[in-house]
Amino acid sequence: MPVEETLLELKRRIMELLPGDVSITGVEFEGPELVIYTEDTQKFADDGAIVRTLARELKKRISVRPSGNILMEPEKAVKVIHDIIPEEGGIKDIYFDMDKAEVIIEAEKPGLVIGTHGATLREVAKVIGWRPNVIRAPPIQSAIIKSIRRYLREESEFRKDFVKKVGRRIYRDKLIEDDWLRITALGGCREVGRNAFLLSTPETRVLIDCGVSVGTEGMPYLYAPEVSPISNIDAVVITHAHLDHSGLVPLLFLYGYDGPIYITQPTRDLMALLLLDYIEVSAREGKKIPYKSSLIRDAIRHTIPLKYGDVTDISPDMKLTLYNAGHILGSSIAYFHIGNGLYNLAFTGDIKYERTFLFEPAFNDFPRVDALVIESTYGGMNDLQPSRREAEKNLKDEIENTLKKGGKVIIPAFAVGRSQEVMIALEGMQLEVPVYLDGMIWEATSVHTAYPEYLNRKLKNSIFQGENPFLSDVFVQVDDVEKRKAVIEEKEPFIVLATAGMLNGGPVLEYLKGLAGDERNKLIFVGYQAEGSLGRRIQKGWNEIQLSNEGKIRNIKINMETRTVDGFSGHSDRNQLLEYVRGIRPLPSKVICMHGESNKCMALASGIHKRFNIETVAPMNLETLRLA
Predict the structure, then answer these.
(1) The CATH number, out of the four listed (1.10.10.10, 3.10.620.30, 3.40.630.30, 3.30.300.230), of the domain defined by the range 3-69
(2) Which is higher by pLDDT, 137 or 363?
(3) Is residue 305 a contact partner of residue 331, using CB atoms and an 8 Å limit?
(4) Which CATH number applies to 151-381+571-622: 3.60.15.10, 3.90.1150.10, 3.40.50.11540, 3.20.20.70?
(5) Is the pLDDT of residue 214 over 80?
(6) Contacts 24+ apart (CB under 8 A), 111-119
(7) Looking at CB atoms within 10 Å, which of 66, 250, 351, 449 has the fewest?
(8) CA 455 → CA 327, 345, 421, 459, 497, distances in Å?
(9) How does strand 182-187 pair with strand 196-200?
(10) pTM for this one?
């Protein structure tokens, strides 16, 4: 049945199911949702059973939005909101989500904004037409989030057309009756970096991740025949923001892709932050810029954010659900339900199966998993890590040992994830020296505070109760070259947390140049150091390195102590990976091991097979596996 006929039939059915006093003005597929437009939004809001009934009967994700003719102009609506809502509510920001016809009100005291039994918000909605949504104002304002909101508002006309086009593609008639499922490895197999996999049925092609090998600039095999032409891909799913999973997403739009990117909202914001930094660092270091910033913007306007647990149609024969991966903010396990019960596939991306200072453990309570694609970063026989608490103690011992000698501590860290874990650990140590934060760490931390619902229960409650560890006086932001020089020249001991985590660029190299020669100082690694990175070379014992200094190459003596404190990683160790698989009930029939050095992938595949008698495989890049 053509899409227009389907919509007419759905509209007829909706009108049958609605109470007699509720009217609708239109029905449209927008992205993965069936959107009902109405002038009676308050009746839908007052009776939540209406939407539940429609979703159950129509078997669609339903969204109710006010008709365009009742929406007040945003500038006027802002003034009305300030007139109606009491000043004590502490409104910090008001912005409009044009996709959802929703106005989001950030306030210090959401309860006062909502009013008794929601009376104040109902009055706001009645006057301005927009659906008001009140959230607690984040304690640190994020520049990247503000920029993305402003840009998406500017692109509202494009977005309207785009989500309609996506919706009609999702709900098109299935053209091919054959049933099979294949997965093709385009990168990230028997290696760490350039993650990219193509999931294919006769009807659908979905690209899962599109990363770069940072340092070597290795790219996925996007020219493989299974992928070509890129314009025929139905959807892109990004598990998380790290560059080895998202770094080449903008290139897809240069090569002709024009479809949706499914992603969590924090991943969207962090991805934009990391992509912009990636091209800026490339330019600063004289490397070829992989793409222009305009392509990053193009990627952002093609995103369709999903919440954990939402079951979402992404094609006529495929549903997607994102679940918490416990790795970094917004990181997801992508769970695909293919065909009418034909096959279920869980793709972990990077996971942490342990409660950390930031997140709950990775989700594994799936309804059914036929095949599991799992990371193997620490899948080797001896890849065992201490718990977070042990790691915290070991880090404290190393730091106190250095401070007693009058030394300074450099901790290279990834801006997203590791930095925030280490910040919470340092804040709890009650050290009497400043902790300098350099690079993107402060901005990445501000994004974390904007999405407390993605953090673990303890941290979320602390933030809501005004005991935010990220706002501790111990942390000092370093945001320009002069401040950095002043810190390096300081006589008194201090700790500096700086990017990049593998010493492959960023401000941490400036601290290395200034502090590496003093044997009282210490360099502490808290994250994975990839083969070939400067961090791995120093970890192996190199005592002299070459770095660029004011355009000249300079030899740097590494006289400072170097230590590795395990346990802060966002990746699961071998035991956690095995426990993760054990916890899936019933066990999957097949496990595919990827995202790890060759020996780690093989070792994990062997261990899972021996422990659970499951068929396992550690494919090579460019291999295609038939799953069904």
Answers:
(1) 3.30.300.230
(2) 363
(3) no
(4) 3.60.15.10
(5) no
(6) 112/85, 112/86, 112/88, 113/85, 113/89
(7) 449
(8) 11, 26, 11, 6, 21
(9) antiparallel
(10) 0.94
